[in-house]
Amino acid sequence: MTRLGVPPKPKEGTAGLEERAYLSLLRTADRLEGKMAEWLKPHGLSPTQYNALRILRGAGVDGLPCTEVGARMISRDPDITRLVDRLEKRGLVTRSRGTEDRRVVRASITTGITTAGLELLRRLDQPVSAFVRGRMGHLQTERLQALMHLLGEVESRE
To answer: Between vectors from CA 118 to CA 87 and to CA 91, what angle results, nearest 5°?
Structure first.
């Protein structure tokens, strides 16, 4: 580190500051997701399944087309239909064909099932919040806001 807290210029043939920041972001995201996967495993969910259930809960009783669920996912799943199939087999989601366009399949966690999907999410809400606080809570509000701002700037460059 230099006096100003900036990493020194890398030696030739080594990654530049942007590349090191990018790799650090990917490494951190991978480790955080791995910890979440370990935490969710005893609950019978993967992070991708948990994300899909949260998306569907937010959609309400009308549900969403599977393509829309896929578009809202944190990590893109190339086969969202199979993901919804697995959740449906467990009784966590149900599917119904639209009346306007029978080619569109809507997925919902509130229509046509017991409250199994919603109950699972309700049971996980508080523990997941505590899990996330355990990983991010040491950062002060201002630093979390700065992090969110910087990540938003990076994401907007897509």
So the answer is: 30
